[in-house]
Design goal:
This protein is of the alpha+beta class and about 130 residues long. It is built from five helices and six strands.
Length: about 130
Amino acid sequence: MSRGFAAETVAAYLAAAPPAPSQALAALRATLLELIPGATERISYQVPMITYRDRPFLSYSVAKTHCSLHLMSPPAAHLLAAEVPPDRRGAARFVGATLQFPADQPPDRDLLEVIVGHRMAEVDARLDSL
C-alpha cells in the first residue's frame, strides 16, 4: 500500500486501510483532535490532514511497513528529533519531517503533546507576526 489511496473523507481513508494501521491511526486522530483547538480535517495529497488556524498542521498515513505522522515542518521535526530522547519515542523514529511508527506501537499521548505544542507555537508565531 502506498501513502495515499482514493478516499474523499478521513473516514473513508481509515476504512480502506488494513485493520491494524486503521486502528492505530484512528486512535492517533482522536488524540490529535483533542489536543488541537479548533482543528479541522480534510484529505490532501491522498492522506488525512489536520489544520490549525486554517493552516496545514499535521497529516498521517499508512505505508507498507509502518504508519507515519507528517509534521509538515522540517525545522520542527529536526528540533524534536534532537529534543525528544529515543527512550521517550518508543518504537517511533524521525525520518525527515515525519515520525514513523509501527501500527502496534503508536506514539503515546505525551509525545503527541510535545509535537502539537511545537507545531502550534510555530504556526502561532508565524500568523501573529503578520
